[in-house]
Amino acid sequence: MNLIGPCATTLLIGTLLLLSSCAPVLNTAAQPGREQDTRVFTAALPTTPSIAGATLYKGLYAGEHGQASYLIEVPEKWNGKLVMYAHGYAGMGAALTVSPPALREYLVSLGYAWAASSYSSNYYDVRSGIEDTNALAQQFAALTQGKYAAPTATYIMGVSMGGNVAAAAVEAETLATARHKVNYAASMPLCAVLDPPYEFQWLGDYTLNAQELGGYGPSTSPASGFQTLLPDIKAGLFSDSSGDLWTPNTVQGTRLRDIALNLTGGPRPVFDLGFRVGALQDAVLSTGGSDGTLSGILTKNSYGNQGAVYRWTQGDTPTPAEVAYNQAVLRTTADPSANLPRADGLRWLPAIHAQFKVPVLTMHTLGDFYVPFAHEQHYLKMAQQNGTSGLLVQRAIRAAGHCEFVGPELVEAFNDWMKWASGGPKPAGDDVMTPGVVADTKYGCQFTRTTRPGVDPCTP
């Protein structure tokens, strides 16, 4: 993310891009059209069946890029509250589908209505996710045939990219610039992209370092031929990259692992297992060679690594080997106008600065290699900068997968979040920032309710 004007403060990699409370400077200059705007998506009519004790409404409605599909479910004994659910990244296909939240039956059992959108586009289009989810919330009465009064309160929760939607939806900049404005009573971003610029910095940094350490260091950015070279890159770093778990088998592979550790939140339980998960490695490496436009969401390159220092040790200063390595790594510069504020609504990649006025509860797995735990640390830093940390609760879960939560963890988080949002006490959370706390072998035990395979149990 890039800002203009005196409100912008750019810091080096591993830190944050923060915005003060002053208003963003709008970008009114003519800009080239986005590739995303040329794509055609088709929303499918939902086929989700009804469940007992509730009425399910489903169909199509007008969204940011065209039609989107929707689901709205209202319990027979509705408590008057509406939970909007934002789904995660759905790939780059043309077909749009909508699905219910994992907590669907639990929400209905408690009397909550819920609604979900397919969004009117795929790709990493958070702007569409916010606008389409907000538009659906605004049309609750119309799309339920006028049978219900307006909700007494509306909440938003989401997973992965949908967690990005949920976090950005309560931002001050979103409330000021979105075309469809909804004042949510609280937000619960799960396994979420909480610092969007960091997410794409991470993907660019990891693939760059994998290519360098794998023996095929690029000479241009974007790296030409990355995907063609990928089998050889992996062969130089891992003993077996065809199975479920990969193992670094060279000095270079071990250095890549330790660079990743430092880039994703520092020493912590479950990181080693998360690093080895082949499906997550494949997901991250599939982004190698990208041009920095987020596959056409932006029009200019947003990735740069000037000033980044890649470390595989934990000392206070880089070793001579690390100094030499950093001198050899290709450097590139992001275009400062890649994601400016816009005069026509939200940025192409909506901003997150932790400038919110409602309760926010997050939850993240410690070993997530795709959307790393460092997002929680960055989000807390932003909240501390902007005086909103008192409205933030964060929880760490001892699991290796992306969004790998179990039912009891989701239920407990939802209950605590909703009690808090309804005027109850602030619930407990984890310290995500203190290195010694996060590195403790028992870290994450406070809210982990099931021991996952390959993860040490939480014994006294």
Automatic annotation (TrEMBL):
One of its GO terms (molecular function) is hydrolase activity. This is Alpha/beta hydrolase. Keywords: Hydrolase, Signal. The keyword RNA-binding does not apply. The keyword Hydrolase applies. It comes from the Bacteria. Residues 1-29 form the signal peptide. InterPro entries: AB_hydrolase_fold.
